[in-house]
């Protein structure tokens, strides 16, 4: 678990960075803002914006976490800066460029949160709901849906996790990995009390219905 004081200091750095970006955007200094972000990518990650944006979400996470353990610092910096770029392109009405940056930012943020849930207790000036609202008109890739499924379960929002699971299965209804993840999810839910399930907006009957639906897909 990452040190909370460290996360607080990191959040302060994010806040100062985003304040500078906001001032540049308000002055329509979009190119200057993109150059500033590229400098920060090099400073904190040793990578250029061009390289980061050329990688898939999965490859980017591997690049930022070469030891196989999620690098919280790198993931959060990359997520914040990618969102910053996305906001700039959105202001320029370049939805294609903003979309890919918001998507990568969400994937990296979820990777960090799934690795250490305590991060959510700090105001990082970036959150899952805001990024999802930026992406609401787009169909998310399967890997990102899997991350969201795990994230919602972690939050205790079991109904949302279930919805995300079956949404992912609509993309690939015979996906054995997804079916196995779903089965394990429902087995964990069966161990919950009725009160815990209700708090997650799911009933025990709905859990059994979900299990039955998964069996039909096998």
Order of H and E elements: HHHHHHHHHHHH
- Tell me roughly what share of residues is in helical segments: over 70%
Mean pLDDT: 93
Shape: elongated
Secondary structural class:
mainly alpha
Number of helices: 12
The tally of domains stands at 2
Q: Calculate the terminal CA-CA distance, rounded to whole Å.
A: 37 Å
Secondary-structure map with pairings?
Layout: H1 4-26, H2 30-45, H3 49-54, H4 57-64, H5 72-91, H6 95-115, H7 128-134, H8 142-155, H9 158-171, H10 176-190, H11 194-199, H12 204-217
Helix pairs in contact: 1-2, 1-5, 2-5, 5-6, 6-7, 6-8, 8-9, 9-10, 10-12
Give the structure's gist in a few sentences.
InterPro entries: DUF6483. With 218 residues, the chain is mostly helical.
Structure description:
The protein has 218 residues and is mostly helical. The chain folds into two domains: 4-134, no CATH class; 142-217, no CATH class. 75% of the residues lie in helices and 0% in strands. It contains twelve helices and no strands. It has helices spanning 4-26, 30-45, 49-54, 57-64, 72-91, 95-115, 128-134, 142-155, 158-171, 176-190, 194-199, 204-217. Helix 2 (30-45) packs antiparallel against helix 5 (72-91), helix 6 (95-115) packs antiparallel against helix 7 (128-134) and helix 9 (158-171) runs antiparallel to helix 10. The mean pLDDT is 93. Pfam families: DUF6483.
Please describe the structure with a list of short key phrases separated by commas or semicolons.
218 residues, single chain, mainly alpha, 2 domains, elongated
